[in-house]
Write a structure and sequence with these properties.
Blueprint (H helix, E strand, L loop, with lengths): L1 H7 L3 H10 L4 H8 L3 H11 L10 H9 L4 H5 L25 E3 H16 L4 H18 L6 E5 L4 H16 L9 E5 L7 H13 L5 E5 L7 H16 L6 E5 L5 H5 L12 E5 L10 H5 L7 E5 L6 H9 L5 E7 L8 H10 L6 E4 L7 H17 L5 E4 L8 H8 L6 E5 L8 H12 L6 E9 L3 H10 L4 E11 L16 H5 L4 E10 L7 E2 L4 H9 L3 E2 L2 H4 L3 H7 L4
Parallel strand pairs: 1-2, 2-3, 3-4, 4-5, 5-6, 6-7, 7-8, 8-9, 9-10, 10-11, 11-12, 12-13, 13-14, 14-16
Antiparallel strand pairs: 14-15
């Protein structure tokens, strides 16, 4: 009876909760549209809140958005041979009002794909027109209250001009983005553009209600002169915020002054989450305790592939008086011998709250790293019982700790990645076989995400699939890297073999498979581009996607699972 009421729309509050559960599960949301009018009204806003992240469908979204242009806006397309018929559409919803995430980098890529699809080659002026028209529709005419406005710059003329268009729109309509809640600034010091500094100046003076800020400044792509100019605006942006809850520092050249300002800003009573991504703690070790102890509501820290995780760093963490939780720790390939004891102490302190953990594989011949890895695994297996996301390189011979660890975390672990660079192992194939022969039987009954980048042979794959047949995997990614020979060995061809276990039994919902040889002597083969195969999987309720689109690294996982 209750189910019939839900599907008939008699319980709207419960229906709303159900639909919210499927956020970002686009295929399920499309199915929800067909249930009834209520479910359609609840699902449509979720489908359209972040449309430019759907890389395989964004051209359709662009067509729909352009239909909301006024007559003058549509007329501008005539000179490019795009008539009004393409921009005419009867819509049931005001789709631009649903957008909550604006990533200008993704929009620019979508625009380029849309233009190429329409004209068979890229036309820069048409691309600029489409981009400005989208900004007009999404921000100006519909006064969108952006949940996250992301600015990402890249080193090419096409995208720089897109960014200038964005800034021009903001300068001409200063009120349109007052409701920004999330801001990402990336690569902004690469260009000698006055618009960049005007853009930053606006945020220093006009926007004080941002709850999430991400600063990305890759040191290998940065001009120090420009960085110094940009850095002058970062501290004022932080100081001006009244409700900053999350901040992420990524690949900073020098974090000292920007990090230090946290203790004297309004955010000392609001900031609850800090992410450090590819940061060298060497420059800020001396002020870690000083800053952390001034953050009154700090709850969680995430450390992802950072340098200088040494005894000095651990000592500073232990000196912090204010309580906080280390939620994520991902380590780079090598750990100096004199750091291992400090890391074990760090893990012991935060073992009850650590949820995301991983480290990459060592280089060929680094025997000492294997010993350290074994120590860490044994320690984690003993103390850390709440791991949800786990990333690992390929386990070495005789190291069964990873399988015991996964088995003991079955009730928590939900995201699992085992991958390594084939060039780092002289025995890559043998190690891959060991993984496939031992992994399947220790998997939990359900996984949200499993990514295996190994060297597959069909016999080992069959063992893995047989042993894991009681596990449902929502997102399964397989990257098969085989040793190149002029005549490829038949037992390395897994693409069609996998149908027997994956497709027929419907054990996954999303699937991505890519095969490539170790020498890059042949073009990679990706299941997504084999249309007949994709359609066959679709008939069995399995959605095939591009490998890179489905891939979730540690940084993306953490950002997407944080609430602010």
């Amino acid at each position: 009876m209750a189910c019939s009421k839900i599907f008939s729309g008699d319980l709207p509050e419960l229906s709303y909760e159900i639909i919210q559960y499927f956020r970002k599960d686009i295929s399920t949301l499309y199915s929800c549209i067909l249930v009834n009018r209520l479910w359609c009204r609840l699902a449509i806003p979720l489908i359209w809140e972040d449309p430019f992240s759907l890389l395989t469908q964004n051209s359709r979204y662009i067509n729909t958005y352009l239909c909301f242009l006024n007559e003058d806006g549509k007329a501008r397309f005539n000179e490019y041979g795009i008539n009004d018929n393409l921009l005419l559409l009867n819509t049931s919803f005001n789709y631009p009002r649903f957008i909550k995430y604006l990533d200008t980098f993704k929009i620019s890529n979508s625009v380029e794909d849309w233009v190429i699809t329409l004209k068979y080659k890229y036309n820069h002026m048409l691309g600029k027109l489409v981009y400005r028209s989208l900004i007009e529709v999404l921000l100006i005419e519909n006064e969108v209250n952006s949940h996250s406005f992301e600015v990402v710059l890249d080193m090419n003329f096409t995208y720089t001009s897109y960014f200038d268009d964005t800034v021009d729109s903001i300068l001409q309509n200063p009120n349109l983005t007052y409701n920004i809640r999330g801001l990402t600034l990336s690569y902004v010091s690469l260009f000698e553009s006055e618009n960049i500094f005007l853009f930053l100046k606006i945020f220093c003076s006009n926007y004080n209600s941002i709850s999430s800020i991400v600063f990305k400044f890759p040191k290998y792509r940065i001009k120090i002169k420009n960085y110094k100019l940009v850095e002058n605006y970062l501290s004022p942006i932080i100081i001006s915020q009244n409700n900053l809850k999350k901040i992420s520092f990524e690949s900073f050249v020098n974090l000292y002054s920007t990090f230090l300002i946290l203790k004297n800003s309004n955010c000392s009573n609001t900031l609850n989450t800090i992410i450090f991504y590819f940061i060298n703690f060497k420059n800020i070790i001396g002020i870690l305790q000083e800053v952390f102890d001034q953050l009154n509501v700090l709850e969680s820290i995430h450390i992802i592939y950072c340098d200088s995780l040494d005894s000095d760093f651990v000592q500073q963490i232990f000196k912090v008086i204010k309580p906080f939780k280390l939620r994520s720790l991902f380590m780079k390939e090598t750990i100096p011998n004199d750091h291992i004891e400090s890391l074990l102490l760090l893990l012991q302190k935060f073992s009850d709250c650590l949820e995301n953990f991983g480290f990459e594989s060592g280089e060929i011949g680094q025997v000492f790293y294997r010993i350290q890895k074994q120590q860490l695994f044994e320690f984690i297996m003993k103390y850390c019982k709440k791991i949800r996301y786990f990333y690992s390189g390929i386990p070495y011979y005789g190291n069964n700790s990873i399988y015991l660890f996964i088995e003991k975390n079955q009730h928590n672990i939900n995201y699992l990645t085992i991958e390594a660079d084939i060039t780092s192992y002289y025995d890559y194939g043998e190690l891959s076989s060991t993984v496939l022969q031992n992994l399947g039987q220790v998997l939990p009954s359900r996984l949200e995400y499993l990514c295996l980048a190994l060297s597959f042979i069909t016999s080992d794959l069959e063992i893995f699939l047989n042993n894991s047949q009681n596990t449902f995997i929502k997102k399964l990614l397989i990257s098969n890297k085989f040793q190149y020979t002029p005549l490829r060995k038949e037992d390395t061809e897994i693409l069609f073999f996998i149908k027997k276990y994956i497709m027929k039994k419907e054990r996954v919902k999303y699937l991505a498979i890519v095969e490539s040889d170790s020498n890059a002597s042949t073009e990679p083969v990706e299941l997504f581009f084999l249309k007949n195969e994709v359609n066959e999987y679709k008939l069995n309720n399995i959605i095939v996607q591009k490998y890179n689109d489905l891939y979730i690294d540690a940084h993306s996982y953490i950002n997407n699972h944080l609430q602010y």
